[in-house]
Write a structure and sequence with these properties.
The complex is a heterodimer of chains A (about 270) and B (about 325). Chain A has 1 helix and 17 strands. With about 270 residues, chain A is mainly β. Chain A has 2 domains: about 40 residues, no CATH class; about 160 residues, Immunoglobulin-like (Sandwich). Chain B is α+β, with helices and mostly antiparallel strands and about 325 residues long. Chain B folds into 2 domains: about 120 residues, Immunoglobulin-like (Sandwich), CATH 2.60.40.10; about 130 residues, Immunoglobulin-like (Sandwich). Chain B has 2 helices and 20 strands. In chain B, the strands form 4 sheets. In chain B, strands 2, 4, 5, 7, 9 and 10 form a 6-stranded mixed β-sheet that branches. The chains are: A mainly beta (about 270), B alpha+beta (about 325). At the A-B interface, helix 1, strand 4, strand 5, strand 6 and strand 7 of A face helix 1, strand 1, strand 2, strand 3 and strand 5 of B. Strand 6 of chain A pairs antiparallel with strand 10 of chain B, so a sheet runs across the interface.
């Protein structure tokens, strides 16, 4: 009985001591100085701290669209036609896509998620390219996939089915939001653009409608609350990239390595 | 005897302590997850109109919202590609415009460490040297992670993430810019077309959405911001307007314009015109580049026909006639 009481007390103490989430937010730092800080309430005037050659007037938030004038130049920051407080944000769910030890004629695959958040209007683009083909320690490369070949030959901008076990190479499939239309389903693959050739990176995610809700909501009436007709704003778009490698019996089994370079940019 | 009791108590205490440690470490341990990259940059786009021989400073706020990572900042030129606002970032920076970072602890292409939830402000100094040719210069300010070293024993694709912000710089001595553009494409997608009396007629199914594309080409040396509307006029004088979204069309490039209508189609179009179309309709595009600039105009027309309904009626009519004819034949026999 005494043991039960003691164990109960231990459990209670453990629960009380359970760590809660702690989030630190850096409000300032001595490593940088705020030149165009996000002033979200009120505005202020400031001058160039370096040479004092111009004055800036920031009104109600630099995060909103703004125009700064000085002798000799005009600056327009942000998109001019829609206000945004959500910065352009890009997430790669894992820095490593692990395909394990590759065995001939045994396809290996793994996935990562790509996420874009953007409060501003306008388009965004995410491109992907490989630094080199997948190589092992003896610099023996796995060729980029051509998918099943024949009429199903894929290119860096055109996905085709890759289901044959005797079709060898390295490539990727995309599913989810804002992906190119040629990724019809999960069997469609493309090879990566090879930066060592060099080839231009291929677009893997793009949208002109990211996070924006352009459907106007009606003006409020005096008699009743307005009925909002706009579609809810979706501030996050996510896709999944699946890497696949299948090596031929002539290729050495083992570990291969490459760097996949993702570039996310808002449009102009 | 006393010693035995003390040892027993000590063993009990040890067991209780072990239970406590087990509960604390195993039950309340954090979830294991892969190392993640999340970067944000602000502002996402900057437009500059600068005289030669001027220097100015722009602050870019870069946030690391995920795991700690080494990061570096660089500037590259870009050029527009295609009609959909895509860009190609050049591998090198070759430009008369000079860039530097005013930060004391940050240099171009030199990695610095960013802690989780850390924010840095890259102070980009832009210098337009005297004698810089007038025109537009397009750059992307890039913040990129350094890829992690390979973990031995497995085949791995390591992700290197880069986030960019576009910088559209116009160099002008007088402040005047060249605004020149033309409508290079204004078309709708018909179901079929036919030619009669030397004219082409476009026919669409009455109930379907009609994709309309409007592409403006910039023939000048400075970026332009087309404005205007697309107007649909019906056979009974009915009129629907679609306002154009003011997007930048960069020098020597074209861009598919968009309207304020929500465009959910995965294939990009300026607007998807919806309705039930019966008769002859006219679509016109009115585009201008701001106050005082000349207007550009283009139009096209189509005929709305209830094709499916007509085919269904024809089939029903044919079947009915056949039934009636066969019944009459039977009666005669």
């Amino acid at each position: 009985m005494r043991d039960i009481i003691i164990i109960t007390v231990i459990i209670i103490i453990t629960v009380i001591l359970a760590p809660s989430a702690i989030h630190a937010i850096n409000m300032n730092s001595n490593l940088y100085r705020i030149q165009f800080g996000s002033v979200n309430s009120g505005g202020q005037k400031m001058s160039d701290p370096v040479d004092g050659t111009y004055n800036l007037s920031a009104s109600l938030g630099q995060t909103a669209a703004g125009q700064f004038e000085s002798a000799g130049y005009i600056i327009k920051a942000q998109f001019q036609y829609i206000y945004s407080k959500i910065p352009f944000t890009f997430t790669v769910s894992s820095i490593q896509a692990n395909l394990g030890t590759l065995i001939p004629s045994t396809p290996a695959s793994t996935s990562i998620n790509l996420t874009v958040s953007f409060g501003g209007a306008g388009q965004y683009i995410v491109t992907a390219a490989e630094r080199t083909p997948l190589k092992n320690f003896t610099n023996n490369p796995i060729p980029n996939t051509v998918c099943d070949g024949g009429i199903n030959t894929c290119t860096i901008t055109l996905a085709k089915p890759w289901t044959s076990l005797s079709a060898y190479g390295f490539g990727y499939n995309m599913t989810g939001s804002d992906i190119p239309a040629d990724f019809t389903n999960s069997t469609y693959y493309r090879p990566f653009a090879d930066l060592s050739v060099p080839e231009n990176p291929a677009t893997v995610m793009t949208s002109v409608d990211v996070t924006q809700n352009l459907t106007p909501t009606p003006n409020p009436t005096l008699t009743s609350a307005p009925v909002l007709t706009g579609t809810p704003r979706n501030t996050t778009h996510q896709s999944t990239m699946t890497f696949k490698a299948n090596i031929s019996p002539l290729q050495a089994a083992g570990s291969y390595f490459t760097v996949i370079h993702f570039v996310a940019t808002p449009s102009f | 005897m006393i010693n035995k009791q003390i040892i027993l108590k000590f063993i009990h205490l040890f067991i209780y302590f072990f239970i406590f440690l087990f509960l604390y470490l195993f039950i309340y341990s954090n979830n294991v997850r892969a190392q993640q990259i999340t970067l944000s940059i602000s502002p996402p786009v900057v437009e500059l109109l600068v005289k030669p021989d001027k220097s100015l400073l722009i602050g870019y706020t870069i946030r690391n919202l995920a795991d700690p990572t080494p990061l570096s900042v660089k500037v590259r030129t870009f050029s527009p590609q295609g009609d959909y606002g895509e860009i190609v970032i050049d591998p090198e920076l070759i430009s008369p415009i000079r860039f530097s970072l005013d930060n004391t602890d940050m240099q171009f292409e030199q990695p610095f460490f960013m802690k989780s939830r850390d924010t840095v402000q890259a102070l980009l100094r832009i210098r337009v040297p005297e004698g810089t040719p007038e025109g537009d210069y397009y750059f992307t300010v890039l913040a990129e992670t350094e890829p992690a070293p390979q973990i031995g024993g497995t085949s791995t694709s390591v992700a290197k993430a880069t986030i960019g912000s576009n910088l559209l710089l116009t160099v002008t001595k007088s402040g005047r810019v060249e605004v020149k553009g033309r409508i290079s494409l204004f078309q709708m997608t018909p179901d079929f077309t036919f030619h009669m009396f030397g004219r082409e007629y476009q026919v669409v199914e009455s109930g379907r959405n009609i994709p309309v594309d409007l592409v403006v080409q910039n023939t000048g040396k400075n970026l332009i911001k087309p404005q205007g509307e697309i107007v649909l006029r019906g056979p009974l004088g009915q009129k629907t307007s679609y306002s154009l979204f003011s997007q930048n069309v960069l020098a020597d490039s074209s861009r598919l314009l968009r309207t304020l209508e929500n465009n959910e189609s995965p294939v990009l179009h300026t607007v998807n015109v919806s309705g039930y179309f019966m008769g002859v309709y006219t679509l016109s595009a009115n585009v201008n580049f701001g106050e005082g600039a000349s207007q550009l105009y283009a139009n096209t027309s189509f005929i709305g026909v209830p094709i499916r309904f007509s085919i269904a009626m024809l089939v029903i009519l044919t079947i009915s006639v056949l039934i009636i004819v066969s019944k009459r034949k039977r009666r005669k026999e």
